[in-house]
Automatic annotation (TrEMBL):
InterPro entries named in the record: K_chnl_dom, K_chnl_volt-dep_EAG/ELK/ERG, VG_K_chnl
Entry's localization field: Membrane
Membrane topology: Multi-pass membrane protein
Major localization class: membrane
Domain Potassium channel: 162-235
Keywords recorded for this protein, A-Z: Ion channel, Ion transport, Membrane, Transmembrane, Transmembrane helix, Transport
Top-level lineage group: Bacteria
Protein name (record): Ion transporter
Transmembrane segment boundaries: 43-62, 68-89, 101-124, 156-175, 187-206, 212-232
Length: 275
């Protein structure tokens, strides 16, 4: 009876996982572990992601190339494999699927699989850069190299870049080649107009026609100014480290803080220069 009871209360972790379970465990380690091998894998994935984002930025200039569709479908296959692997690496797939970055990645995959039918939404692929910065894989190398203090400025720069390229794609898709004086005749014109509008320079040599063009310009200016203010705040505001207080949970503190400024609890923030 005693042996039977011990067998029933055996540690579930001692039970060897099945083949599918081993695959999920391996992927979980590769995507979330800090082991040297996992970090090399995460760095390789990050490099591939950055190459894919570079393709998204250059898409308007490459669309007429004969090899465009082959590259497009190849990137779709890579993104699909990455999504499947990340799904298997998650502990709760349905919860993972409800996350906004994952939803955007699935939408981006749809634009890659149907580039002809969803050509007008292709400019939203640059949102892949935003979803990438919402993963630990992107920031872990920065923290390992003692650059974690620059996370907020880097995030602000990325948000601004994503906004610029999304707006550029929208302007190019919605207003290009309409034959209006001062209109958009190419992708570079759209980028030029976006930067001039966001910075409120307003040269006036390129404008968006009609009432909708004026409304779009107003929205671009207001949003662009907000992102510039956010960028300035993140650069000039004193840098803080992410270290949750054990008592009240406040997550941001000065690098040399000894006590939590919210509850006074004694902190033990690791010294970034201690190796």
């Amino acid at each position: 009876m005693m042996a039977t009871k011990k067998e029933k209360t055996a540690d579930p972790a001692a039970i060897k996982p099945t083949g599918f379970g081993r695959i999920r465990s391996t992927l979980r380690l590769l995507y979330h572990s800090s082991a040297p091998g996992a970090q090399r894998f995460q760095f390789a994935v990050l490099v591939v992601d950055l190459v894919i984002i570079a393709f998204f930025i250059a898409t308007p200039l490459l669309r007429d190339n004969d090899a465009f569709l082959w590259i497009d479908y190849s990137i779709a296959a890579l993104l699909a494999l990455d999504l499947i692997a990340r799904a298997l690496a998650s502990t709760d797939i349905w919860r993972w699927l409800r996350q906004m970055p994952v939803i955007l990645d699935i939408f981006i995959l749809a634009t890659l699989l149907a580039p002809i039918w969803l050509v007008n939404l292709g400019f939203l692929r640059i949102l892949r850069l935003w979803t990438l910065t919402r993963t630990a894989t992107f920031w872990r190398p920065l923290r390992k190299r003692e650059l974690g203090l620059y996370q907020e400025p880097v995030q602000a720069v990325i948000n601004l870049l994503v906004f610029l390229f999304v707006v550029t794609g929208f302007v190019y898709t919605a207003f290009a080649n309409r034959g209006d004086d001062g209109g958009i005749s190419g992708y570079i014109d759209a980028l030029y107009f976006t930067v001039a509008t966001v910075t409120t320079t307003g040269f006036g040599d390129i404008t968006l026609p009609g009432t909708w063009g004026k409304l779009a310009s107003i929205i671009i200016m207001i949003t662009g100014i907000s992102l510039f203010v956010r960028l300035a705040q993140s650069i000039f505001r004193p840098a803080k480290v992410h270290f949750p207080c054990p008592q009240c949970g406040l997550s941001k503190h000065e690098p040399d803080a000894v006590h939590c400024k919210a509850c006074g609890h004694i902190l033990n923030i690791p010294d970034s220069g201690s190796g």
